[in-house]
Amino acid sequence: MSDQGTPPAEGEPSLLACSLCGSRRRVQDPASLETHCADCGLVFEGSELVTPGPPVRDAPGAQGSGRGIGPFSLPGASRRELGTILKGTRDGQGRPLDWQRRYEFQHLRRVAQRQTVRALEDPLERSQARDSIAMASDRLALPPVIRSEAERFFRDATQRGLYRGRSQVAAVGASVYAACRRFAVPRTLGEVSKVLGARRSEVGRAFKVACRGMSTIVPSVDPRVYLARYAQELALSPHVRTSVETMLKETETSPEVSGLSAHGLVAALIYIASERGGERRSRAQVARVSAVTEVTLRSTSRLLERLLGPRSAGAES
To answer: Could you give the dihedral angle defined by the CA atoms of residues 171, 172, 174 and 176, in that order, rounded to the nearest 10 degrees?
Structure first.
């Protein structure tokens, strides 16, 4: 409690005397925001709040701009409920408005809605992109952080005009694939395109254009991330996994494999290591798990066998 028992200085308004004891000493409780008499404890009515409220935006003397005031909302949450509501045909005292005032309020309501949409909404509010991202995340079993990152990437790329002239499914696919690569989640471009019903080439072009225009760095996925996923789905032994890691270290610095995709390279190494380790997996099985064609798997396997040579073959035996 704060004691306000000191007499008022000259020029300041004098405090009213207590109606019971006549004292002019005040005690204020910061918890209940009530002012008491310091002598008899009488609670005075009509006391003003001493705790300052939130700063008003652009008000003189306010600390900050007031933008941090209000309930917390997620980055992808809808914000349509913000704004001034102007409706009704009566004023604050219940009297009916004439037609001129009603027309003025209708005009103000349209202007307020237009300005609210322009200032607060983002590209996700005016399209079905959020639903498409949520659907792709559910089908690909992606964590919530990937969904939030895909929404952020889509919002930034759309505001920069990087998706102008491209279909929405291609833009959504590029955003989801960029979010997966950002957090090293093993999802291929073909898998993302398949769940959205888009062409792989169209999604790939949108992804390349967005990466060139965005300031966010999208790293490449480590092939070992795909190795853990494919080895689990194919039920490979630790010996075969170790063989794949050894061959991956030998071939990842070769310039001949620089143009190969990470999941295609890992799939070919798994096919070679499973045959040499006595745990043969058919080419169709590996191609189905890794989402590559059997033709691509065959050509990549021949290239890697030529790079590894008989020395690696003798070491595996």
So the answer is: 160
Q: Is the pTM of this model over 0.85?
A: no
Distance in angstroms (rounded) separating the CA atoms of residues 126 and 110: 17
Q: Is the CB of residue 308 less than 8 Å from the CB of residue 250? A: yes
List Cα–Cα distances, 313 to 227, 250, 281, 299, 301, in angstroms.
20, 13, 17, 18, 13
Strand order in the sheet with 34-37: 2-4, 26-29, 34-37
What values do phi and psi take at 215, rounded to 5?
Answer: -85, -15
Q: Where are the alpha helices (DSSP H) in the chain?
A: 99-120, 129-139, 144-159, 168-182, 189-196, 200-213, 223-234, 238-251, 262-276, 283-290, 294-316
Q: CA 217 to CA 310: how far, in whole Å? A: 40
Q: What CA–CA distance (Å, rounded) separates 275 from 192? A: 30
Eight-state DSSP code of residue 27? E
Comparing C-alpha atoms, which of 187, 262, 265, 273 is closest to residue 234? 273
Query: 40-44: long-range contacts at Cβ-Cβ below 8 A with a sequence spacing of 24 or more?
Result: 42/18, 44/16
pLDDT at 2: 46
d(CA 140, CA 187): 8
- Which position has the token pair 């390279």? 265
Enclosing H/E stretch for 34: strand 34-37
219: burial class by Cβ within 10 Å (0-12, 13-18, 19+)? exposed
> Could you tell me if 247 and 312 are in contact, meaning their C-beta atoms sit under 8 angstroms apart?
yes
Contact 140, 187 (CB under 8 A): yes
What average pLDDT does the chain have? Answer: 75
Residues of the chain where predicted confidence (pLDDT) is lower than 70 = 1-15, 31-32, 45-88, 91-93, 113, 115-127, 310-317
- 277 and 241 Cβ atoms separated by less than 8 Å: no
Orientation angle between helical segments 283-290 and 294-316, nearest 10 degrees: 120
DSSP 215: S
